[in-house]
Write a structure and sequence with these properties.
Layout (H helix, E strand, L loop, with lengths): L13 E7 L31 H10 L4 E6 H8 L10 H8 L2 E4 L11 E4 L2 H8 L5 E5 L4 H7 L5 E6 L20 E8 L5 E7 L15 H12 L3
Parallel strand pairs: 1-5, 1-6, 2-3, 2-5, 3-4
Antiparallel strand pairs: 6-8, 7-8
């Protein structure tokens, strides 16, 4: 039976929170072996440069009520790690308590206590309209293009590390629509991490800095671009 919002329901917000390199990679920031898919060689790229700005943002993300929203691969990573950590640790105990919603086409069982399958993006959109805490995304690069396409992201929190990884899964992957974001918060850590919080602000608009008419030479160049001969 499809989920239906209550008349007085306050829609949940979806918050995308990502550790991200300067060149846009979000794969395996935590440690070697976390996600080696695609022969990714740099697992654990965040730890050497992590600073107080990153730590404070993580604390802020998980300070109030929330549920987790995960792709299947990130869910598998989390479910193979966090339930086996000491429960006197703050993150392990917290993740054990919250609900875990997994957007996946797979029928494989979700064995981590408190886990729920979302079969498609429509199921997620319906969940978003229900009473409940915000949904916080961790990792899950495959979720972002489809969430942006449907306008389901309410806030984007980027913990931008001062490293270039050169390869790996990216936040703005194939299928991400063009758009504009409004910066609502920023701060810089002692090791150069920049925490940036954005909210979607509508369609991408274009303009020009050109102050004169286009020259004949420029028109010729553009024709070569169209013809593939430039």
């Amino acid at each position: 039976m499809p989920l239906r919002p209550k008349p007085d329901a306050m829609p949940r917000k979806i918050v995308g929170a990502a550790f991200i390199s300067l060149d846009g990679v979000i794969q395996a920031p935590g440690g070697p072996g976390e996600d080696d898919q695609g022969d990714f060689p740099y697992g654990g790229w965040l730890e050497p440069v992590a600073d107080e700005a990153v730590g404070e943002q993580i604390d802020g993300l998980f300070d109030g009520p929330f549920d987790l929203l995960l792709g299947r691969r990130t869910y598998d990573i989390f479910a193979s790690y966090w339930p086996f950590q000491p429960m006197d640790g703050p993150i392990a105990a917290l993740f054990a308590k919250v609900e875990k919603f997994v957007l996946t086409r797979s029928d494989a069982p979700l064995e981590w206590v408190g886990s729920h399958r979302l079969a498609d993006i429509d199921a997620l959109a319906a969940l978003k309209q229900q009473d409940g805490p915000d949904l916080v995304i961790q990792g899950s690069s495959t979720l972002y293009p489809q969430l942006f396409q449907r306008g389901l992201i309410d806030k984007l929190v980027l913990m931008l590390a001062p490293v270039a990884v050169g390869q790996g899964k990216r936040l703005f992957g194939e299928g991400t629509p063009a758009g504009t974001f409004k910066l609502v918060e920023q701060r810089v850590g002692s090791k150069g991490n920049v925490v940036l919080t954005y909210e979607p602000a509508g369609k991408l608009e274009t303009g020009t800095f050109a102050t004169q008419e286009v020259s004949e030479r420029e028109l010729e160049r553009r024709e070569k671009v169209k013809a593939g001969t430039w």
